[in-house]
Specification:
Number of strands: 12
CATH topology: TIM Barrel
Number of domains: 1
CATH class: Alpha Beta
Strand content: 5-15%
Radius of gyration: 20 Å
Largest sheet: 10 strands, parallel
Helix content: 40-55%
Strand order of the largest sheet: 2-3-6-7-8-9-10-11-1-12
Length: 399
């Protein structure tokens, strides 16, 4: 499991910032290598550390702008559907808590049907660590988190049934990490992609940000849920770190090492690479204020993602539409994009009464799509896991 390799990963990542950046010509050579072949630990550290130079940042932005990814004139739309914000965790950068809201199945069906009615056939189901949905099974421990699926499964089954009745599509979940048996049940009932944001990979920072009681305090189980998902037969994995919780360059090293580990040990890595950034008043917390990610740094990080990862990138509504549009016009498409988003349960069919998880940039869906189509992009509401597979980059395995 990757959690057993985390200490080694930390030792590698923490080397960033401890030596001078590469000269421009050596950095350009390494970028080209990274676009075609897997990198060694040494090359990876040299590459990421080199972006501490403004001149090298310009090089990676220019290189990535000219680099073509699969289906680079197409955009796959993916909205989230939050079905609970009641949470027993107490993360220090999130609004969800024990006083949140849970959708009943009728409310959930209304929300899901509303999104399907807009034309969406790929939907992300999102929930907090709601103890009434994620019942702890006998033998539960922080390091062996076993759950019952009785309360969770009806949401998955209903979503799958509604999709199938409307021509099919793809279900992704952004839910707490689960054990293999629970994930098998979800997969058998329609789950195509399991998503976990790792928040921060750095163990010390992770402990500081998750110091309260709750299943999320155990970082190793969160890390290993990716391999639990693979063992359960789920075809696609989605991962990310939350930009702004720790040094983003060191997090990028961890993300690459994690993806490479999954490919080496399990034959496949992340199908989706997320790009969430801390937003709202939590960004001013003294625990994370020093790690704020500027727009310029965010753009450099996206440029690196396009070179380092085979999985499709996901641009989200944490960022303003005009900023995401600028990224698309600079780098091209071949990405997942979220254009409408409610981060409070029940916010699509009618205005939400619950608090949001984080602020989002609201857009008018049809107007935004029209702008993107005028930019020359084909915007797709209806897609499935076969499309996600087709958008993966294929490259040589050895030099």
């Amino acid at each position: 499991m990757f959690s057993s390799d985390l200490e080694k990963s930390v030792q590698i990542a923490e080397r960033v910032g401890t030596f001078p950046p590469l000269p421009a010509h050596e950095f350009a050579r390494l970028l080209d290598k990274a676009s075609r072949y897997p990198l060694s630990d040494t090359d990876l550290i040299e590459l990421i550390n080199a972006t501490r130079s403004d001149a090298n940042c310009e090089i990676v932005l220019k290189f990535s702008s000219a680099y073509r990814r699969p289906h680079d004139r197409e955009l796959l739309l993916l909205p989230p559907l939050y079905f609970s914000s009641i949470c027993e965790n107490a993360c220090r950068y999130c609004n969800f808590n024990k006083d949140g809201k849970r959708l009943d199945l009728n409310e959930f069906e209304r929300e899901f049907s509303f999104l399907v009615g807009l034309g969406f056939h790929s939907i992300e189901l999102v929930s907090s660590q709601d103890p009434e949905i994620y019942h702890k099974a006998d033998g539960f421990s922080p390091y062996n988190q076993r759950f019952l699926t009785n309360s969770l499964l009806p949401y998955i089954q209903l979503a799958s049934r509604l999709l199938n009745a409307n021509g099919g599509g793809m279900l992704t979940t952004n839910i707490p990490p689960l054990d293999v048996e629970s994930l098998k049940v979800l997969h058998e009932n329609g789950l195509d992609c399991f998503l976990i944001w790792q928040e921060t990979f750095n163990p010390d920072q992770y402990r500081r940000l998750h110091a309260q009681k709750g299943p999320k305090t155990t970082q190793s189980f969160r890390l290993d849920s990716m391999e639990n998902s693979i063992a359960a037969g789920i075809k696609h994995l989605a991962g990310a770190f939350l930009k702004g919780l720790y040094d983003w360059r060191k997090e990028e090293v961890h993300m690459y090492l994690f993806d490479r580990y999954l490919k080496t040990k399990n034959g496949r890595g992340f199908s989706i690479i997320g790009s969430p950034r801390v937003k709202g008043h939590f960004a001013e917390s003294p625990l994370i204020r020093a790690y704020g990610v500027t727009d310029r740094e965010y753009e450099v990080n996206i440029a690196l993602d396009r070179i380092l990862f085979d999985g499709i990138l996901w641009l989200q509504t944490r960022e303003p539409f005009d900023f995401n549009r600028r990224l698309l016009r600079r780098f091209g498409g071949g990405v997942i994009l979220t254009l409408v988003s409610s981060t409070a349960p029940g916010g699509y069919f009618a205005p939400a009464s619950a608090r949001t998880q984080f602020p989002v940039s609201k857009q008018d869906l049809l107007d935004s799509v029209a702008v993107l189509e005028a930019d020359g992009f084909a915007v797709r509401y209806a897609w499935d896991e076969a499309d996600l597979s087709a958008f993966q980059r294929k490259r040589e395995e050895k030099r």
